[in-house]
Task: structure prediction
Amino acid sequence: MYRLNHDIIGKDQGIINKLYELIRDKDPLVVINSLCALEEILASEGGVALNQPIVLHLLNRFNDFNSWGQCLVLKLIAKYQVNEEEELFGLLNSLDTCFQNSNVAVILGTANCFLTFTQTRPEVHKHVYVRMRAPMLSALVGTGPELLFTVLSHILLITKRMPSLFSTDYKQFFVKYKEPLYVRLHKVKVLQAIANDINAKDILTELSAYAVEEPQEFSQESIRAIGRLATMVPSASETALEILLSLLELEQLQHVLSTTLVALKDMIRRFGNIAQDVIPRLAHSLDVVSDSNAITAIITMIGEYGDIISDGPYILEEIVNSWIEKDDKDEKVKNQLLVSTLKLFFKRPKEIKPILGKLFKVATEDTLHPDVHDRALFFYRLLSSNDGENIDRCKEILSNSNKHVEQFVEELDGFEVDRLFEEFDTLSVIYGEGSDRFLKTTTTFDEEEELPNEELRRKADEEEELYKKQDEQLKAQMKDEDSRPLPSSYTAPTVVSQHEPPQHHVTTQLQFNPTALLDPPTFERTWKTFPVLKKIQIPYLARMPMDAQKIDSFFQSQHVKSVAKGLNANVLKMFLYAQEFHSAALFLVELQINQNTKQITANIKSTHDQYVTQFEIVFQTLLQQV
Result:
């Protein structure tokens, strides 16, 4: 009744009072359903109003409720404000028996109550973790994989605050043969988190066995865990290094070799003294590895420590030559090659200078990757200015004074951990992020097409007719513009070295900025500020997927990004944006794909009118390619 008409029930104090009275009913199902109804009706007021008598009554009848009812009671009790210390310990003693329950959900709900009640009392709070240890371990035994994953997620969160709590029980987290992949991956993360000076070697031995097992995701996560464990427990770094170096010999397993190289790169950043053992082996690995992440890792290490091996510059030269002969390198490989070559230039200038000239030439001619092109141009101008100050500035940009890092950014997650503890025993712990990141509406602002009355509908029809006339005029303009050359996006500078990049004009229509970011509130304000300048209407293409994620991924690959998307009644709606790289012109798009009418419609707005026609051509081409 409340869902059908909020006003009838929500404003009737008599019904609410009756529901409160039913909390003391003899039938446990009546009690639980009364609590559920009150929670929903009074949601805007914070739910059921709890006091000490109600809490004690619910605890006294706790064993009468089924598992679902017990979880609900625990969820409600966790919201109760405890005022006195005597009352606190009385509640904790009453709840302590709940840890002996065989239901995992009840154990986690009880743990949440303990953590919530003691969060303002640090000394008691520490003892709560110790009390939780045995029930959490017992929950790992005899449960299905889904519940096992849930318990492991909560244990992993607890280790963020108390890493040593489960350290002596590390064998409980060894992977079993028949466990599904998602459980295996979580166990590897827990093993990494609970490692210390005492158990690190045993854990490393176990992880090394996982490194060559199937599937690949499990193998790769185990290798990454070996590298992270070494940075967390320095006393185990030698053992970890021996394991990783032995894995480099498994050239037939490409995924093992690639992941090992990335792990070694991170280890070198933490322990610079191991570079002598690692760097000489990189040249051979470069010949057999194909993964872009692994190639980037090798280039990074050579850039940092290429001065300790004689053929460092020539390894980079081979990569530059392969780029010149066959442009098949990933964008991040090209960027890292540019940075590493420049770093080595300041250490071994005579050997690197001719290589650097060839690199500048091929990089400034790269029109497919604006980031590579502009970065190369930036550094080239600094070095060719014959200004000592600019050269010093270039060296300063490239030099990393804090080469040996003490802690990686991924480990500094204190704020996020606090957020997850506030939402303990919820999906937030499973997803590893706050509820505000996954509980959100499909659109971020009021949709303009909703017309509340006939007058607005009539105006919308008039606008539709106007759009059609404008569309016909624009198509006529496009025929004229197609015969004209488009404006060049960039002109390379004149270079005065023996390996100078030639001047050239990039005659592409538009280049979108891959790093452009626009948050939903800014999108909304901009959308309401500018009028619709273009409207595209084309028939629905049968091959086009009605999958928002697939379409979004395609547009992302073209640097056209989305701020909101959703599918309702066979109508897919997306709000997209893109920014032109050089002019900074911003384009906003409202895209609708309607399977009912077999039409695709796109309304386009822009901060720069002069580029809209070009963007319309590009966007219509992209629609044909989805």
